[in-house]
Amino acid sequence: MDKFDLVIIGGGPAGLSAARIALEAGLSVTLIDRSISLGGQLIKQTHKFFGSKAQYAKTRGIDIANILINDLDEYKDRLHILKEATVVALYKDYVITVYQFNKYFKIQAKSIIVATGASEKVLAFENNDLPGIYGAGAVQTLMNLYGVLPGKEVVMVGSGNIGLIVSYQMIQAGVKVKALLEASDHIGGYLVHASKLVRLGVPILTRTTVKKAYGKNKLEKIQTVELDEQWNYIEGTETEISCDALCISVGLTPLHQLLSMAEIDMIYVNELGGLIPKLKKNYETSMPRVFACGDVTGIEEASSAMVEGKLAGLLASKSLGFIHPEFELLEKNLVEQLNNLRQGPCGVKIRLGLEKAEVNSHD
Amino acid sequence: MRIEKHPILSFEKKPEIHFTFNGKQLIGYLGDTIASALHDNGIMHYSNSILEERPRGFYCAIGNCGSCSMTVNGVSNVKTCMTELVEGMEVVSDTDEVTIHG
Question: Is A51 left (phi over 0), alpha (psi -120 to 50) or beta?
Answer without folding.
Answer: left
